[in-house]
Specification:
By secondary structure, the protein is of the alpha+beta class. It is built from five helices and eight strands, in the order ββααβββαβαββα. InterPro entries: Acyl_CoA_acyltransferase (IPR016181), GNAT_dom (IPR000182).
Length: 197
């Protein structure tokens, strides 16, 4: 049995569905909400590049190195964005949660917190991961703060780690949650989500 296989993860606010080409129009609408592709320190596809990004993530899924999801709000059915398990290390039972973006109007609504709770629960309780990693651009202060609020600890900074689409070099901040920390992280995420239900 493969380490990762397609699954839907259902919460009170959102459902994480396996990414499919049929999500294209909804994902374009979500990216237009805030014109997220204009954030220079992220890699959110412009509308004309969304099809290629969906195809890229599905190809990585087929290669066993990514499990991509579409995030859908339960009460409206509206697509909010994308998230993934990536940099999969089945032998060491580690994954990264990343390549995540959500429509600007979904920020601070609890939907991203619940998405992370669903992904972390599946990773630690079903996949029996020993650690889950998060990475973000040094300049993405909003993302760094959100990852820290999850309860992840900063492991370090990979300087000049990768080249961005505009040619600039990215310093990547690495965070993780390890299995022994999961019960307390889970309890805090549940407490935070209670105000949105």
């Amino acid at each position: 049995m493969p380490f990762l296989r397609e699954v839907s993860l259902v919460g009170a606010l959102v459902t994480l569905e396996p990414l499919s080409p049929e999500h294209h129009d909804g994902l374009n609408d979500a990216a237009r909400d805030g014109e997220l592709w204009n954030l220079w320190y992220t890699a959110i596809p412009r509308p004309e590049a969304m099809r290629a990004e969906i195809d890229r993530r599905i190809a990585l899924r087929d290669a066993g190195t990514m499990l991509p999801f579409t995030v859908r709000r339960n009460d409206t059915g509206r697509i909010l964005g994308m998230t993934t398990y990536m940099n999969v290390d089945a032998e060491n039972r580690r994954v990264e949660i990343g390549s995540t973006w959500n429509a600007r109007s979904a920020h601070r609504t609890g939907t991203n917190t619940e998405s992370k709770l669903l992904l972390l629960t599946h990773a630690f309780e079903e996949l029996e991961c020993i650690a889950v990693e998060f990475r973000t651009h040094w300049m993405n202060h909003q993302s760094r703060a959100a990852i820290a609020r999850l309860g992840a600890k900063q492991d370090g900074v990979l300087r000049n780690h990768s080249r961005m689409a505009d040619g600039s070099l990215r310093d990547t901040v690495v965070f993780s949650i390890i299995a022994s920390e999961w019960p307390s992280v889970r309890n805090e995420l549940r407490r935070r989500l209670a105000v949105h239900r």
